[in-house]
TrEMBL record:
Keyword Oxidoreductase belongs to the record: yes
Protein name: SDR family oxidoreductase
Keywords: Oxidoreductase
GO MF terms held by the record: oxidoreductase activity
Pfam family, one: adh_short_C2
Family of this protein: Belongs to the short-chain dehydrogenases/reductases (SDR) family.
Transmembrane domains' residue ranges: none
Keyword Ligase set for record: no
Amino acid sequence: MSLAGKQVVIIGGGSGIGREVARRAAAAGASVHLGGRTPEKLAAAAGEIGGTWQVVDTTDQDSLAAFFGALDRVDHLFTPGASYTVGPLRELSDSDAASPFVTKFWGQYHAVKHVVPKLAPDASIVLVSGAASVRPPGAAPAYVACNAAVEGLGRGLAVELAPIRVNVVAPGTIDGDLWAARPAAVREASFGQYSRDTLLHRVGKESEVADAVLYLFGSTYTTGSTLYPDGGYALR
Ligand SMILES: NC(=O)c1ccc[n+]([C@@H]2O[C@H](COP(=O)([O-])OP(=O)(O)OC[C@H]3O[C@@H](n4cnc5c(N)ncnc54)[C@H](OP(=O)(O)O)[C@@H]3O)[C@@H](O)[C@H]2O)c1
């Protein structure tokens, strides 16, 4: 798919899945603009692909207004930017339990709110949930509910914003920057459990999620859908 002449914006593009989507979009000819909270990460990622960047925090609407206010036009928006705490109802503080909703649900909601005036008439948006939405991997009810809420948000926005297309990508467990930042024992236990539980008996790669996102950018008759690059996890 060619993205020549298109402006792709990725909030959370300085690492992980967002960075991989940035690489793919740039390779397909897009101009890529990255957002996130850490200048060094954004400068490194943008430098690698010849893109541009600006600091933004999706939990701060003034920051989102400044970020999108500096852009002329957006053809495709991808919003993997989120950081949160996951855990059981019995153990998490109320603020940790709310953190997925604060950054992953409301962060994406407000990013869409602020991008709307800049969207091209045939633009698309890809939100991020997670396969935990349909198959909870363990005791993490607020995180599970947040992912399900993001999928509902995608359907609701698809109706309101049509003909702008809005879709959701729901990854399974992905071997990449997010898990590399967690303790090795936690990572290995989670990867082992996921590999036993999923149809393809392995965790995923960031590039495999990027494949799904690029597909949703280009699939001009797909809107309101959720795509699960999860190795079949949801079925077992
Ligand atoms: N990796 C997996 O196994 C997996 C599975 C299911 C779902 N997901 C979802 O995929 C998304 C991306 O995850 P990832 O694996 O790519 O992890 P990641 O490497 O941690 O990427 C998250 C990015 O978002 C940025 N970010 C965090 N909070 C932000 C905020 N408030 N405003 C703007 N940017 C923010 C981070 O940079 P700064 O800290 O510098 O801002 C970082 O670059 C997340 O929503 C995650 O829940 C991942």
